[in-house]
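The methods section describes the discrete structure representation at length, but only in general terms. An entry of this sort, consisting of the sequence and the corresponding backbone structure tokens, reads as follows:
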Amino acid sequence: MNKKEIVVPLLVIGLTILFAGICAAVFLSNGKSKKWISRKMKIGGLLLTLTAASCNGGGGEVMCYETVATNSIWIEGTGQNGIEIKLDTSNVLSGQISGLDGTDFSFKISDSENKPLQRGNLIPNDGKFDQFYEAFKIELDKNLQPGNYLLDIFAAKIAAQDTVLAQNHLNLSIKNE
């Protein structure tokens, strides 16, 4: 146990007792004493700062009250304007899912008027979606023409795409350079 782990709880206990005493003084003065109200605000602010700092100093680990986002999906090579790909060199997009919840994942590529041009399943690299973190790939149709498209990724089967919201909605730019 280090010095900080001993001093901080004792400081919080001491400030809490002091705060309770000051609250009693404010109550006895019917809230008319500016001096006691000022002290109450200062000690209260100190307590809030100390407790907030002690709660957030953990280094980013997930606490019991924080939930991990389910089906967090991202595609490699996604930039400021979405994904850019050249079909003459590759027609495969790679990505990852973390916080996996489910076994069926699909995608839809649409034109600017939201007319579907291609639908398909996300293909897990290891054969099935069964781990917390999964890598996958999307094989694009080589017959897609160069242009700008919309890529929607669903945590559902292809048949259910029209009844569920997309998990991700990305711009897809196909170049033929």
Notes: The beta strands are 72-75, 78-79, 82-86, 92-98, 106-110, 116-121, 123-124, 133-139, 147-154, 168-175. The first helix runs from residue 3 to 28.
